[in-house]
Amino acid sequence: MSERTVKVIIYGHVQGVGFRYFTMREADKLGIRGHAINLADGCVEVLASGHRHAIDTFLAWLTIGPRTAQVERIVIDDVPMSSVSERGFSAG
């Protein structure tokens, strides 16, 4: 199965609501590597790498996020796999 790596910016009410924690839990369930970080503008950046099907499932989840968040939109860019650590997923 092929791999896919994406950088996703999530807009909306996504900071201070546990978004990174729930994103890390979802990524761990799907076997996805990467990270979720808060950005200065109030958005969250997610870098994720894994099997294409797992990434597609993860992206669908990110469009909704946890029930504590209000996702307005996401922007998805494919990036080189070398951008992601070989270790699990971090919410730093």
Q: Helix amount, in percent?
A: 25-40%
Q: How many independent structural domains?
A: 1
**Termini separation:** 29 Å
CATH fold type:
Alpha-Beta Plaits
Order of helices and strands: EHEEHEE
What is Rg? 12 Å
Total number of beta strands: 5
Q: If helices are DSSP runs of H or I spanning 4 or more residues, what is the number of helices?
A: 2
Task: Tell me what you see in this structure.
It contains 2 helices and 5 strands. The protein has a 5-stranded mixed sheet with strand order 4-1-3-2-5. The model has no long low-confidence stretch (mean pLDDT 93). The protein has 92 residues and is α+β, with helices and mostly antiparallel strands. The termini are far apart. α1 packs antiparallel against α2 (52-62). It is globular. The protein has a single domain (3-82), classed as Alpha-Beta Plaits (2-Layer Sandwich), CATH 3.30.70. The protein has helices at 19-30, 52-62, and strands at residues 3-13, 33-38, 44-51, 70-78, 89-90.
Summarize the structure.
The chain is 25% helix and 39% strand. By secondary structure, it is an alpha+beta fold. Helix 1 runs antiparallel to helix 2 (52-62).
